[in-house]
Amino acid sequence: MRVRDADGRDPMASAGIVNSQSVKGADTVGRDSRGYDAGKKTNGRTRHIVTDTLGLLLVVMVTAASIQDRDGGRLVLNRAKMTMPSIVLVWADGGYAGKLLAFARHHLRVAVQILKRTDK
């Protein structure tokens, strides 16, 4: 909040960005907490994050890589709304399209806007 205030912004963020990154699990990571992300061909875990528009972390959540973005998005956005109740808009990539939009709008009172890639 202090960083946002020092930048001349409201300390309570109203918009955010959600994304995820799958990372390979080390051999020491238990199989019960890993999963296979077929799209990224990764056996490991996925980091789901929500940042504010300055890029400051609001929420970080780690799941098995087999959890789809839209399902992980449901979990991480729910936590983001609890952490920063002022959030009303979140930008996401196409991996979050589908039922997550209606869930966020109806249950969290958050609009999720899907940004499509413009490059080929």
UniProtKB/TrEMBL annotation:
Please list where the region (Disordered) is annotated. 1-43
Q: Which domain of life is it from?
A: Bacteria
> Which Pfam family is one of those matched by this entry?
DDE_Tnp_1
What keywords are annotated for this sequence in UniProt?
A: Membrane, Transmembrane, Transmembrane helix
User: Domain Transposase IS4-like spans what residues?
Assistant: 14-105
Q: Per the UniProt record, which residue ranges are transmembrane?
A: 49-67, 87-104
- KW Transmembrane (keyword) present: yes
Q: Name one GO molecular function term.
A: DNA binding
- Biological process terms in GO annotation: DNA transposition
Q: Does the keyword Transmembrane helix apply?
A: yes
Here the segments flagged for biased composition (Basic and acidic residues) are 1-10, 29-40
Q: What is this protein called?
A: Transposase
